[in-house]
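User: Here's a protein and a ligand (NAP). What would the complex look like?
Assistant: Let me lay out the input and then the predicted complex.
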Amino acid sequence: MTTNFPLVLGLDTFGDATHDETGRPLSHAQTIRNVVEQGVLADQAGADFFGIGEHHTDDLPMPAADVVLGAIAARTTRIRLGSAVTVLGSDDPVRVFQRYSTLNAISGGRAEVILGRGSSTESFPLFGYDLADYEDLFEEKADLFAELLKGGPVTWQGKTRAPLHDQDVVPHTESGPFPAWIGVGGSPHSVIRAARYGYSLMLAIIGGSPARFTPFSQLFHQALERFGQPPRPIGVHSPGHVAATDEQAREEFWPHYLEVLRHYSRIRGFAVPTKDSFAAEVGPHGALYVGSPETVAQKIAANLTALGASRFDLKYGMGGLSHGALMSNIELYGTQVIPRVRELLQ
Amino acid sequence: MTGRALSSLRSPRIAVLGAGHTGPVIARVAVEAGYRVSIAASGDPEKIELIASVLAPGAEPRWAADAVSGADVVVLAIPLHRFAAFDPSLVAGKLVVDTMNYWPPTDGVQDLFEDRRYGSSEIVARRLARSAIVKTLNHIGYHELDDGRRPAGSPERRALGVAADDPAALDVVAGVIERLGYDAVPLGSLHTGRVLEPGGPVFGASMSRTEFEQAVHTPAA
Ligand SMILES: NC(=O)c1ccc[n+]([C@@H]2O[C@H](COP(=O)([O-])OP(=O)(O)OC[C@H]3O[C@@H](n4cnc5c(N)ncnc54)[C@H](OP(=O)(O)O)[C@@H]3O)[C@@H](O)[C@H]2O)c1
């Protein structure tokens, strides 16, 4: 599949609580300050985008991504900044628009949003929503958010928030709507929803073979056509870790990956990963981008081509990796992976 | 529905209910295995026509009632929190494959499924009293179902558990699982089938037949 959109190579974080060099957990406050440093480095190293995913847990203390992005915006001039993702279903679309429109103002037009649910569910009980209503909540709010993005007074009515009558929502953007994506993990309904409301499509591929998402790209193109929407870009978000060598990257990443997945497997009841399943995910047909710059670049280039995608966001970090290891990952991604992917895809 | 009629079903017609994450993948692998497959969501088939044509080409989108009436095997791939509103008469007299799992953080607390003496499929079976219930496909991720297939005899072939109270229904579904590309490990009752649930020894795990048999026959600590 081919694509006519410019190649975008970004970084995402969930603000995983980091450890110091001796393995002791840092405070939430220090973790957040570290994320600001990481965003600034991402800009210097040459990444196109820096995204922060909304989370509300002790191991991912990142509920106010837009505030952190504002701090990064003030110290950078080039990199685009956005959510990855904003949990729109448990938020108010008007507030989300206001926060990111404010970020857009601070950053001189560099804001984006990726809307979705992510793999987390904790914001629903926290804000008094029922996850069983997820589909209805997201559908309505994605519709309203698309209206807000157009700018100008909004008239809207639904079941999930108060109606708006010819409402002017501020701050106005300087140069039209900022980019908005919907993050999709495997729901074809979400792909169609993205197409219907005019969002770009971000495929969150966190396990299994990336190539199995190829039909989702086709579904998106066909749905855009059906709704009379112009073509829109497709991106890929996947976890990974870059170090000087394949061996070093795997050794650094594996124990933290195991610990994090062990935690989630206890909560959700699935099997704990094994060395074998990890090797499969790290290999050419798996979803993890763990390795040397060359290994990771080759895998990104191959999967973007297979999926007809023009954007890749590496979700770096895994609970407990040190700030130092994350900084080195960012540096290598910006200075080596990105130029190599560009070269491979030229 | 008699056991005899069921066991003579060599190529059952399959209706998949649910066109979300899971349903279209099941429909696709079933079409590829040579079955006649229809797929339905809760409403007008027009709404899932695009999904079916791209994600499960060959599976016919239909109204749920039409899909079910033309099928021998009905695969329930709907969220568990929608099950309370599911009409049991729709599948009366049918063989029903229950792929559903109960996970309160996404389903909300479902009173119907809170009685921990019973597995979720036992509770489903009680409600769908006029159907034969078979539990399988719940413990493999929808994202693995496609790539995980291997021909019979392949050393990499993955095992899936198949649990049912009705032995004839179990046989039919075990045959389907084998033909999709997995080794079917029979579990003689829905009560034993609780080992396939979230938190059990095989949930989300890729195992060979031998490993699987060992895992399900070792009583949990
Ligand atoms: N996640 C996995 O890897 C996995 C693996 C195996 C099994 N499962 C199980 O598969 C089930 C479905 O999960 P999912 O993630 O695929 O759900 P999903 O993406 O939310 O999709 C649900 C689908 O079910 C349809 N539906 C709801 N009620 C229906 C009804 N009464 N009749 C017909 N269709 C109905 C919906 O149609 P409308 O949009 O028209 O309402 C929608 O197409 C769950 O029980 C889950 O536990 C999941």
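Summary: Chain A has a mean pLDDT of 95.
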